Each structure stands twice: as structure tokens, then as C-alpha cells.
Amino acid sequence: MNAPATARAPASIISPEWRRVLLSLGAGLLVLGGVFNEEIAAAIRTWIDSTAYNHCFLVIPIALYLLWDRRFDLHGVPLQPWKPAMLPAVPVALVWLLAERLGIMEGRQLAAMTFVELLFLAVLGRRLWWAMAGPLLYLYFLVPFGEFLTPQLQDVTTWFVRHGLDILGVPAYIDGYVIEIPQGTFFIAEACAGLRFLIASIAFGCLYALMMYRGPVRRALFIIVSILVPIVANGFRAIGIVYLGYLLNSARAAAADHIIYGWVFFSFVILLLIVLGLPFRQDEMSTRSGSPAAMAAAPAAWRAAAAAAAGLVAVACITPALAAALAFATRSPPLTAQTIDLGPDCSVAALPGAEPGQRATCGDVVMDMRWQALSPRSTAGAVMAAWRTLCRPADGESRAEAWLNTGDGKPSAWRIIRVEDPAYALGVSVWIDGRPVRPGLAMRLRMALDSLTGSAHAPLVMTVTPAVHWEALTVTRRRIAEDELGAFLAAHRGLDQAVRAVTAVR
User: What pTM, to 2 d.p., does this model score?
Assistant: First the structure.
């Protein structure tokens, strides 16, 4: 008579040692998430608000899939926690502190993501991290980085249009980003610069290279192609839209659906990249065999992993704690700006509602002036956040920006922002140390120093917009309002002294 079979419990996919290692890794990620919560929140807001970064929501699922695709390559690679990963974390922490003082959120986010990479390196060790390097480095696409390239991309697109129209024989007058042909006027706006196409193409190019190629040379070449192709393609797209307006005898008709044209054209470009890359594919499966369940950790590996994770997280927490201490020690209340005097030719009244600002009436011209005054020890990050908040009514796909041309050759600190749909226009400027300045590295350095030593004047951001119902204006009346805005700002040079007076710290 046969003995009854003894039921066997299925083997666990993850060994107990690996569970403890993953617990250490997860705990480290949670602590880093709490420490760098501002960077995470700012990134998610950008993913939602900007079409150039909507794809960032797919980055983590893609990285997980890439890890799953490489699960057999990880077989036999030993887990060897690497405590020296704390050493490169020190300069990364200093970079984060510098970015925080300068108010550069992208720098803070890149440093935070580097801490995540170093955490994986410390817990998993060099060999295992290197085997997972492709999916882990793909996580850098979570950082909404690259917006600073927009002006350069506008320049490249304008160059393509200028030379393309010359070749096609289309008469055109080009002034900056404004392109005038007999059939109408086009403008190379920020949305037309091709940033969204470029970022999406690079993300796709890296994914395709990781999936299709094994050699570093082929991967690098395909990523370079994925950078160059969308820039060139966007130039041809812009030429096509302007030339279509020439053929249709209507610039407005050609530009009506230019965003749709762009995505259709971009889809064709991505398809072309795929077709061109297929003949050189190296996506055969790894020669290794086995199961990821065979990855065993040494009995004491989890203790080394926990120690490495704790050390790395401790280093990452130093500079955020120092920045918080600096902010607490140098805190001061924001200045309550008073009514700003525009001279005897203008009268001022409170704006409707409780927002800081005033409605200025100068003859037949009526302007709404809004501002936000900050603590004298604020960093540039707070100033640029106020800039974005006050300029939010001018957000839109057709947004165009340029510095005010005063006509006398002197540089102006007023930035004119126009948007066609929905129609709106405003001027925005910022005062630091009682003087109007253009945002840039010099301003950020000055404010970083002021955040430590203080300033005799509070920073102030101001917007000025015609007090009209924009949605009810005809195109002609809209242009008149925009001209009145420029004339108002150019005429009131004394506004600088008035702002300097009300921002003085008493």
C-alpha cells in the first residue's frame, strides 16, 4: 500500500533575506520621499500642467517593465551592499543646497533623483546595480528638465523657416520670432519650439535603445539620432505650416490646427525612427538561464544593506535640514506693499476683491496692477513662484514672450507676455534690492546672498494688464490694448523709484 504523499508548500519567489533587503530599500525610498516632498510635488504639478511632460507618468511603469524584461540577466549576480556609495552622496548634497539657495527647482530634483540612484547602489552593490542600470537610469525622466532650451529651439525653428521660405520663393519679413508673409503673420511661440516633441523623442529613443540594442555604441547612436531628428522635423513642420498659409492665402487657416499637424507629423517621425532602427536590432534574449528566484542573498547581507541604506539617507538629510535651519533663523515677515504712486497724471483705486494691487487710470488708459511682496530674505525660488502665479492668466498654447522695446535702446526689465487663445496680455517685472532686474543667474546669486545677510528692500513681483474684458475684444481692439500696455510701461519710468520707496524695509 502506497504511503500518502506529503504536500509540499510552494517555494517562495523571494527569499527571506531578500525580503529584508527590499524592506531596507523601501524604507530608504520612503524617507527620501518625505525629505524631498517639495521636489516631488513640484514635479507632479509640472507633469499635469505641461504637455511636454505628460509622459512622465509612464516612466515608473516603463522602468518596472524593463526590469522584468531583464530578470534572467540578474540570475547569479551577487548582492553585495556597497557602503562607499555615501562618498559621492556628499557632493550631491552640496549641489542640492546650492540649487536650493539659487532657487533652481530642476537642480534640486536632479539631486534628489541622484540620491535615489545612490540608494540603489548602496543597497544592491556595484555589480547588481550595473546589471539594472538601464531601468534605474531611466528614472531620471521623472525630472521635468529642459525647459531652458525653449529659446534656443525657437531660434533653430526660425532659422529653418527663414531659409526654407527663401528656397520656396515665398516673400517674408522676419523680425525675431515674428514671420510676416503677404497672406498674414505667424509667430514662433514657445509651444511651436518643439520642446514637447524633443523630450518625448528622447524618452522614446532611450526606451527603444534599451529594448532593441545590447551594445553601448548602437544605443548611444540611436539616442543621438532621437535628439537630432525631432529638432530637424520641427523645423520642417514650421516651414510646412507657413507655406500652407501661403498656398491657402490665409495664415489663420493654416495655423488653426497647427498643434494637431505637429503631433501627426511627430507620430510619423517616431514611426520613421522605429523603421530605421529595426535593421540594427540586438534584442535577442540573454544567454543566461534560470529564474530570478535563484538570486540568493548571503545570510548577513540584509544587515549590510540596512546599514548602507541608513548611511546614505543620513547624508541626504543633512543639507535639507541645514536649509530648513537657515530659513528658520533668517525668517522675516513679508512686506505689505502700499499704494504705488504713478504721479499727478494718474489716479489709483483698489482692485476689485482683496488681492494686493491697484487700478491706475491715466487719462483714457486704465491698467490693473497686481503685485506680491516677499520677505527680504527670500530666495529666488519664492520670487519665481510668485512670477508664475501672477502670470497664470497668460498661460496658453499660443503664449509668446519678449522684453519690452522702449525705443531708446535701453534694456527694459519688463517682460511682455501675450496669448491668443484665450486672449490676454500682461507685463511682468521683478524688483530686487529696490531695482528692477531681469531673472537670471545674477539675480539668483544676489538673492542667495540676501537670504543670508538680509537686504534693505523686499523683493517684489508686479504685473500690469489693461483693465478690459479680453474675451469680448475684437482682434483690432486687442492689438490696441496690447500697444497701450507697452506705451504705459515705457512712459512710466518713474515706477522704478516708486516701487523702491514702498519696498524699503523700515
Answer: 0.82
